[in-house]
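In practice, a research group might receive sequence data for several interacting partners and want a quick structural hypothesis before committing to experiments. The following worked case mirrors that situation: the sequences arrive first, and a predicted assembly follows.
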Amino acid sequence: MSETCKIAVERRGDVAVFWTDGYINNQGGEEIARQAYAQLESGARALVLNLEKTRIVNSIGISILIEVLEKVMDRKGSLAFCNLTPTIDKTFRIMGLAQYAAIYLTQEEALKAVAATG
Amino acid sequence: MEIVATAQASALGEFIQMPRDKIDEVKLAIVEACINAFEHAHTRDDRVHLTFRVGRDEEEGPEFLEVEVLDQGEGFDHSMVDPPSPEKTFHEGKKRGWGLQIIRSLMDSVAITSGDWGTRILMRKYK
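A structural hypothesis for the assembly, expressed as tokens:
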């Protein structure tokens, strides 16, 4: 498990897709938030976070993702997660993130779902 | 620091052939225990001590990976900790304070002892 989390972002119309690679702690969460807010400011309506290459998200990282989710909800946008490990899925459900953000098995499913909410 | 600890959990989990998803659960529990110790314990020596054990309850029983996280901080009464909830997180802005809840949810057994000598979290995950 690496100390740092690499983040890649690609804009597809009004949807921004994020790929994370590594441990999401406070630094990783803050970097995701920084890039997510930049995408929202430039007109993104929906964010899809593909966590395929992340195996651990700690509670501080999740609390920052919740702040991102709240900002998306304030803007009537949508946030979807995909490719979660069972541990991350379980932790998101424990903390209630799954009640407010959609979770999909694959990126294709997530993109189809957020496109339908547009 | 917690990264080093999780690497040790990975190595021992793989040694007893624990499934990868269960190893991830142990790793996250260690991370949360370390975060709590560093954020809340106000340790005298600025250290958290970790001990790892593998074993079985009975000769033919399932193997377990046990982790003890010990700090020499102020201690706390865990029965007085206000339990977190999604409602408090999303509607009252209380986004932190999930560590113990996550640890208890991910591990098979968790024992917390605390006093003016510090805090000890003993947690076990069966293979």
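Before designing any experiment, note the following. The beta strands of chain A are 6-12, 15-21, 46-53, 78-82, 102-104. Chain A has one domain: 6-116.
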